[in-house]
Amino acid sequence: MTTVAARTAELKASHLDRIRRSTDRLFLWLTIVEYVAGVFVAYILSPRTYSGTESAIHPHVLIAIVLGAVITAPIVYATVFWPGQYRTRCIVAVCHMLMSALLIHISGGRIETHFHVFGTLAFLSFYRDWRILIWATVVVAADHLVRGIYIPESVYGVIANAEWRFVEHAGWVAFEDVILIASCIRGVSEVQAIAQQQAELEATNEGVEAIVKERTEELRESELQKTTVFENALDGIVTANSEGRIIEINPAAERIFGVSRHHVLGIPLQNIFCPGQSQEFVETSLQAHASSGRGHLVNQNVELLAVSETGTPIPIEVSVMCVPVKGCPLYTAFVRDISERKKLEEQLAHTNKMESLGQLAPGVAHEINTPNQYIGDNVRFVEESFGSLVELTNEYRRTLAESRLSEANAKRIKELEESADLDFMLEQIPPALTQALEGVERVGSIIRAMKEFAHPGVESFTMVDLNRVIESTVMVARNEWKYVANVELDLDPSLPSIQGNPGELSQVILNLVVNSAQAIEQKFKDSEKGSILIATRADSTHVTITVSDNGCGIPDKIRNNVFDPFFTTKGVGVGTGQGLAITRNAVDRHAGEITLASKANAGATFVIRLPIGPPEKVQCA
Amino acid sequence: MKGNVRRILFGAGLAAVWATALAYGVHAAMRYEATPGRRASTAPTLAPDSSSEWTCVMVAHPLCPCTRTSLVALREVMAKYSSKFACRIVFVGQRPAEETANMEIASSIPGARIEWISADDAQQKYHAFTSGQTFVYKRSGALAFSGGVTPGRGVDQPMFALGLFDAILEGTLAKKEGPVFGCSLGSTSQ
User: Fold this and answer.
1) Nearest to A250 by CA among A171, A148, A336
2) Residues of A with CB under 8 A from a CB of B
3) Residue contact B184–A50, C-beta within 8 A
4) In whole numbers, what is the pLDDT of chain A averaged over residues?
5) Disulfide engineering: A75 pairs with which of A31, A368, B149, B188, CB 3.0-4.6 Å?
C-alpha cells in the first residue's frame, strides 16, 4: 500500500507538472500573440493623434509597445526558464491580468474587452492551482480600485456610485473565481484519482508482468528444449501441413533424405521419399487420411525407402503422427535410418544360419561316423585279405606256367589277364586300399574333431589340453585355410592343461584362424599361399597362445574397434563383426587377456594369455 | 552562499526596475487618459433650433481617434432622445477626400446636421479648442451644458453620455461645464 501511495503521489506530481508546463507554453504563446495583437489594435484604432492638421504617433501605440513589452517580458522569461514552477504561475497570473488592463485601456475601455479578464481567469484555471487565481483577482481588484478612485468614469462608465461599481465588478470576478477554484480543486482530485488508478494498475501490471515474464521464461526454456530435441534428434522429424506440404524438417531428416531445409520447405512430403512405391505409398496414405481419417502411414511404423545424397536407396522406418491444430491436421513424420539395423539383421540371420549348421554338425558327424566306421572296417578287411589274394593269384600263375596247357587256353588266360589288367591291379590296389584307409582315418579324425569342437552340453569349466584344442580346431577349419595358407603349429609339448571351457577356447582359436585366412586371402588374392603360425608356450603362471599371419594386417585407425561387437570391414556373409568380440568375451571369461600387434599390410599377431590355475573370476557362459 | 545572495539581490533589483517601469507606464497611460484638452472659455451665442426643445452642437476633428468615442456616445444619446434634440456636428478643418470613421459615425447619428468650418472659425464662432467639445442649449437659447461626453480620452463608455443627458433633461446636472477629451482642433494662431 505504501508503494502504491508513494507511486500515486509521484504520478500526481508528474501529471500536474506536465499539465502546468503545458499551460506555461500556452501562456507563453498566448501572451506573445496578445502583445502583437495589442500593438496591432492600438495602431488600427488610434494610429495618430492630431493637433489641427498636424499629427503624431498616438500614445496608445507607444503604450502598447513599451508597456506591453514590460508586461510580456516576465511571462516569457519565467515560462522559458522556470517552467512548471509556482513562481512562474504567479508571474503569469499577475502579468496576464496587467495585460488585460492594458488591452482594456487600448480599446478605450470597451466593455467587451473586459471579458479578457474572465477569459484569462479561465485560462489560468488550466494550471489547476487555485492559489494563482487569488493573485490574478488581487491585480484586477487593485487595478479597478485605483482607477475607480481616481478616474471612475473611465472604468465604470458612470459617475454615480463608483465605489459600489467596484464591488459589482469584483463580485463578478469573485463569482468566476469560486467556480474556477472549485474546478481547480476538482481537477486536482481527478488527477489524484487517475494517479491512484494508474499506480494501482501499474502495481497490478507489475504482478502480471512478473507472471508473464516467468511464464515467458518457462515457455522459452520449453521452446529451447523442444528446439534442442528437434535439432539434435538422431531420428529425422518432418512436419507437414494439412495439404501434406513440408513446413519443417530437422537436421537428422536432412541427413537421411540428403536434402537441405530451404529446398524442401513447401514441397509435398512424399517427394523426399524414394521415387516409386515409397512415394506412392506416402501420397496415397496422406490422401486417404485427409479424406477418411484413415491411412496406412498414420500412427503406424512402416518401412520405406529414402534416397541418400549419393542417390543410394536407404531403408527407413517411418511413423506419422497426426495432431489437429486449429481444426486442421498437422502431420509429423518420425523417420529412422534403419540401414545399420537391416545390415545387422542380415548378419544375425547369417549367424543364426551358421549356428544352426554348428548345432547340426555333431549330429551329422555322428551320422557320418557310423558308415565311415564300417567302410574303414571293410577296407581294412579288404586290405588284409588282398595280401592273401595276391599270394594265391601268384601261386595260380606259377602253377599255370608250370602246367601244360593248350596254347589256346594259355593264350586265352593271357588275354583275360591283360584285359583285366591284373598286374596293374595287383600292383595298385594295395596302395589304393592304403589311401582309402587313410581317407577313412582322415574322415574319422575330422568327425572326432567336429565332435570335440562342438562339445554339446559342455558349458562348465574343465581341464583343457590347449594343444589338442588347437589341433582339433585347425583340423575343423582346414577348409577355411587350406587354399590360401599353410598352417604351422609350434606347440609346446610340455604345455600344462588349464581350467577352461573347451568349446569357448575352440571358438577363440577358430575365430583367429579364420580371420588370419581371410586376411591372407585379401592380401594375396590366390596368387600365392600365406602362412599362419600358431604357437603355445607356458611360464609358471600362464600359458600363451600366439596366432600370427602375414596377411593384410589391421590399419591403425580401426585397431581400437576390432573387438567391438558387430564391427567388421568385411562384406555381408563374409564376416558378422562378432568374431573378435566373442573371442574377447571368451578370453575375459577365462580371466585372460588378448592383445593385438599389427601393421597395415604386414600381418597381424594376436597373443592370448590364460592363467594356468583356476581363474579368479570365472564367468560361466 | 554569496552566490545565492547575489542572485537574490540581482532578482530583487530586476523586479524593482520592472515594477518601476510598470508603474511609470501605467501612470503615463492613466495620465494621458485622464488629462482633458482645453475647454471652451465661453459658450458661443447660438440661435437654437426652434423646432426642438433642445439643441446639441458638437465640434469635432474629422480624424481624431479619441473623438470617435464621443461621436458614438452622442449617437447613443440621439437614438434615445432624437425627438427632443436637434443635433449639429461641426467638423473643423478641410474635408478629407475620403470619408473618415468620424464622418461615417456622424452621418449615422439620427437627425444630425453636419457642418464644416475652419479651425479659426471654430475658435471664433464656438470658442472650441478641443475635438469633442459639446454644447447643449435650451430652446430659449440658454446654455445647459458645455464640455465633453466621454469620461476620459478615447474611453468608450456611452453610459456616461446617457447619464449626462439624462441629468440635463431632468435638470439635475450638478455642473454645467465638464472636461473635454480629444485632439486639439488647432488654429492659425497656434
Assistant:
1) A336
2) 45-55, 58-60, 63, 66-67, 70-71, 73-74, 98, 101-102, 105, 107-111, 147, 150-154, 156-160
3) yes
4) 85
5) A31
Residue A129 lies in a domain: yes
Under 8 Å between Cβ of B54 and B85: yes
According to DSSP, the β-strands at B112-117 and B85-92 are: parallel
pLDDT tens by residue, A521-568: 888 877 788 999 999 999 988 999 999 999 888 887 777 777 876 667
CB atoms B18 and A55 under 8 Å: no
- Please measure the distance between the N-terminal and C-terminal CA atoms of chain B and give it in whole angstroms: 63
Q: Which of A46, A50, A160 sits opposite B61 (nearest CB)?
A: A50
For residue A251, what are the contacts with CB-CB under 8 A and spacing of at least 6? A231, A232
Residue that terminates a domain, selected from A401, A425, A448: A448
A503, A464 Cβ separation under 8 angstroms: no
Chain A, nearest residue to B91 by Cα: A52
What residues pair up with A49 in beta bridges, in sequence order?
A: A56
Let me know whether A275 and A178 are in one domain.
Answer: no
Q: How many domains does the structure of chain A reveal? A: 4
**Which of A448, A469, A489 represents a domain boundary (last residue)?**
A448
Q: Chain A residue closest to B154 (CA)? A: A108
Q: Could you list the residue range(s) of the whole structural domain that residue A520 is in?
A: 457-611
Which sequence spans correspond to the domains of chain B?
Answer: 1-34, 54-170
Task: Classify residue A619: in a domain, yes or no.
Answer: no
Q: What is the pTM of this model?
A: 0.53
In a domain, A24, yes or no: yes
Asked if B184 and A45 come within 8 Å (Cβ–Cβ), the reply is: no
Q: What SS3 class is residue A332?
A: strand
Average pLDDT value for residue range A367-377: 85
Measured distance CA(B87)–CA(B74) in Å, rounded: 9
For residue A102, give the chain B residue with the closest CA. B26
* pLDDT over 70, % of chain A: 92
Q: Do A31 and A149 share a domain, yes or no?
A: yes
Which amino acid is residue B65, in one-letter code? P
- One domain, residues A330 and A362: no
> Which residues in chain B touch residue A75, judged by CB atoms under 8 angstroms apart?
none
Of A360 and B148, which is predicted with more confidence? B148
A35/A164 same-domain check: yes
A354 and A330 in a common domain: no
How many CA atoms, within 13 angstroms, populate the side-chain half-sphere of residue A158? 12
- The set of long-range contacts for A111-115, using a CB threshold of 8 Å and a minimum separation of 24, is A111/A157, A111/B156
CB A142 within 8 A of CB A101: no
Residue A526 sits in a domain whose CATH number is 3.30.565.10
- For residue B156, list chain A residues with Cβ-Cβ distance below 8 A: 107-111
For position A241, which CATH number holds?
A: 3.30.450.20
Higher-pLDDT residue of A213, A400: A213
With contacts defined as CB-CB under 8 Å, which chain A residues touch B65? 45-49, 58
| pLDDT (mean) for B36-41 | 83
pLDDT, tens digit, 9 for 90 and up, residues A442-458: 888 777 777 766 654 45
Tell the CATH topology of B54-170: Glutaredoxin (3.40.30)
At A171, is the secondary structure helix, strand, or coil? helix
In this complex, the residue of A51, A63, A109 whose CB is nearest that of residue B184 is: A51
Same domain, A444 and A467: no
Alpha-helical (H) ranges within A421-544 are 422-454, 466-476, 478-481, 502-524
Chain A hits for B29, Cβ within 8 Å: 59, 63, 67, 102, 105
Q: Are residues A193 and A237 in the same domain?
A: no
Q: Which residue has the higher pLDDT, A290 or B29?
A: B29
- Judge: B183–A147 Cβ closer than 8 Å, yes or no: no
Mean pLDDT of all residues in A604-619: 76
Complex ipTM value: 0.88
A221 in a structural domain: no
Cell of A27: 501562456
Nearest to B183 among A45, A49, A160 (CB): A49
